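Hi V.,

You were right to ask for the full record rather than a summary. Here it is.
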Amino acid sequence: MVKELIKLLHSGAQANQNDRYRRHNLIIMPNTGDLVTAGDIHGHRRNFERIIAYAALDKNPDRHLILQEIIHGGPQDEEGGCLSFDLLIDAVKLKVAYPDRVHCILANHDTAFINDSDVMKAGKEMNALMRAAMRRRFDSWTKNVESAIEQFLFSQPLAVRCLNRIWISHSLPSDRSIDKFDFSVFHRMLKVSDIVKPNAAYLLTWGRAHSRKTIDFFAKQLDVDFFVLGHQLQETGWMSNNANLIIIDSQHNHGHLLHIRLDSKYTIEKLIGSLVPIASIE
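Predicted structure:
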């Protein structure tokens, strides 16, 4: 059973690397069909299930789905260990089933797991809690499973570029880091050093509280009009700067997703109108 799980994770990593729309560390969307984008999920199984139901990939062959930050949160074992790796496994199964239409992008909790560094959520250090639960579940196989999870997480692309000038990534570098950011990270193979502070993938996934000046800077550098990000907790499930940024959050009962056409032009008002409350999904 554990061997099959490890094999699945390796298959998921291979699917990430061989995604037909992947160019180095970017997913370049086609200009046809539509796209459903979730924000941070953090182990919230019911929201995950509703997102999958809404996407209905089996009935919509031209639809793509973006997932991010599956781990750290949600159900716990009897000793308080984090069981979000179970939901990650389900996300990997989905990637393997739809290798060119499900796109999992790198997030900061992913880099923390790969680096085995502290990462706090709701006052708890999540890596320790998740690894403890894995030791109780997998016993002598734990290191093998951890390694396979790390390989899957590391194989994820950094961002999604839509040809209608929308950019989707977990976050962007913070205001104070824009001069340090290495844009070449999008166009070459990812290195382990990239996800370590203060290097490019770390800065990309950990940045918060972006000023309008910073968003405008990245829009010019990346040649896009709008950014769709996650990473920052939104109690209402989303926020916008009413100009060129939307942040979506999918990890709680007020979570939202974003549903856009890939062949349509957007304004910020039209993007906001494309948000869907996850609780409204049957």
